[in-house]
Amino acid sequence: MLILNFTKFPVLETERLILREHALSDAENIFKMRTNEAVMKYIDRERPKDLTDVKTFITTFNEGFENGDNLAWVIALKENPNQMIGSVGYWRTDYANHRAEIGYMLHPDYWRKGIISEALKRTIDFGFNNMNLHTIKANINVENDASRQILIKHGFVKEAHFKQDYYFRGKFLDSEIYGLLNPKH
């Protein structure tokens, strides 16, 4: 059985990025991203109504880490580690099968600069080498070609296309599942 038992939140670094724990001070940036229709176009989740919703969301994220349910990082540039520009992380951890779902988002000012790719590479390495995941999966909206391309670039393979399996805002939507196996298993 997979166990996520980190005594403290693992801060990760890349050449340009710091991946750190969510803080309540990130609430305003999260609110801006989660209410930005360009960012949320293919993220089929309800938008927060106010900063209180976002602070609850942050607390839930951090409690999820403490309970071993998820591990989600703020993406920040090393030159400004307190300014959140995106997020990346694992949730829906399936302990029995050593499998977790990865998700990510980035503020549009930072799109097409290789930031998600850099953050994904580091979190995938961490997932396989430190969390001992066997499989990392991603669930995307079928219209999200940018997300599809980044997953394929990082070695993910399409595992499934589900027809109308997700109900959001009055309609049923299709989804695609991508998977990446740990090369060491």
From TrEMBL:
CDD domains: NAT_SF (cd04301). Signal peptide: none annotated. Pfam families: Acetyltransf_3. Keywords: Transferase. It comes from the Bacteria. One of its GO terms (molecular function) is acyltransferase activity, transferring groups other than amino-acyl groups. Residues 17-174 form the N-acetyltransferase domain. The keyword Transmembrane does not apply. InterPro entries: Acyl_CoA_acyltransferase, GNAT_dom, N-acetyltransferase. PANTHER family: GNAT FAMILY, PUTATIVE (AFU_ORTHOLOGUE AFUA_3G00765)-RELATED-RELATED (PTHR43792), N-ACETYLTRANSFERASE DOMAIN-CONTAINING PROTEIN (PTHR43792:SF1). This is N-acetyltransferase. It comes from Pedobacter jejuensis.
